[in-house]
Recover the amino acids of this structure.
């Protein structure tokens, strides 16, 4: 059996769970897979990717901070990657890279499949307006939510994200300091990197929470602790980190590369 070469690029990358997840999928499917974690700085990313391609690399995941750079260097991209302006999955086609973004569908599958949430008709608060937020916003709208309110520390980025969705009635921006006036939400998503950098406590108005509120942090592990601690203290019905989303987006990438969708429950 010939070995297929894949990798995940990021910085930092040492703690990435992607190699383990893809190894488990490949084992279950009987595919001989070599999936490496490659650390690359923003300056080195493009060259590292070319070196990987020259070494028979045929598919790659891209994580922080390279998702926008990956989008820019693709020859072709899917429409969902275009709406996100970011790519997390690369597929080699001839001499070029084709880019997709499976983050949004990964989040929606985790929320609806694993956690049994019905997103239709729900009000959703998205905290943050960087790459992670842009990756998931289109898929949430496509899943039939009622309204997406985007709040960001720098308000102009929240405005830009809401505008980019092209649905002025459904995707709107709000001031972080004005969240108290926004009512309550059935779903609150932390897409900020606050927990990754300073570890300081999260503080948001309790008025955002109702008896049905689910809170999800797109980060996983330690980086998700401050937001999830707030969510529990605020009385959210359910709160969890982004590990389930990570597994689901990996399954979507795996399907693009290998043509089969692995069973994510085992992983
Ligand atoms: P990512 O790819 O993880 O989204 P990013 O594009 O650098 O990374 O975006 C980081 C996000 O976290 C931004 O929304 C950022 O807010 P600003 O646009 O105002 O910078 C947000 N963020 C980072 N630290 C934060 C903090 N301490 N409090 C609130 N938001 C924070």
């Amino acid at each position: 059996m010939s070995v297929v070469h894949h990798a995940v690029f990021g910085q930092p990358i040492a703690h990435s769970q992607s190699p383990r997840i893809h190894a488990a999928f490949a084992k279950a499917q009987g595919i001989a897979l070599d999936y490496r974690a490659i650390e690359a700085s923003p300056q080195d990313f493009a060259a590292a990717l070319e070196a990987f391609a020259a070494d028979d690399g045929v598919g790659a995941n891209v994580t922080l901070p390279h998702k926008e750079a990956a989008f820019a260097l693709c020859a072709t991209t899917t429409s969902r990657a275009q709406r996100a302006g970011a790519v997390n999955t690369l597929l080699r086609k001839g001499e070029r890279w084709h880019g997709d973004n499976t983050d949004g569908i990964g989040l929606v599958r985790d929320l609806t499949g694993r956690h049994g949430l019905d997103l239709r008709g729900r009000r959703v608060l998205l905290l943050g307006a960087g790459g992670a937020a842009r990756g998931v916003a289109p898929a949430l709208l496509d899943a039939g939510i009622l309204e997406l309110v985007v709040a960001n520390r720098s308000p102009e980025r929240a405005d830009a994200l809401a505008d980019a969705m092209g649905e002025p009635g459904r995707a709107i921006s709000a001031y972080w300091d004005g969240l108290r006036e926004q009512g309550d939400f059935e779903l609150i998503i932390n897409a900020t990197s606050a927990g990754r950098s300073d570890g300081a406590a999260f503080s948001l108005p309790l008025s955002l929470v109702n008896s049905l509120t689910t809170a999800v942090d797109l980060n996983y592990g330690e980086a998700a602790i401050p937001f999830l601690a707030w969510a529990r203290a605020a009385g959210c019905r359910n709160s969890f980190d982004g590990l389930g989303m990570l597994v689901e987006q990996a399954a979507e990438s795996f399907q693009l590369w290998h043509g089969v969708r692995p069973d994510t429950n085992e992983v």
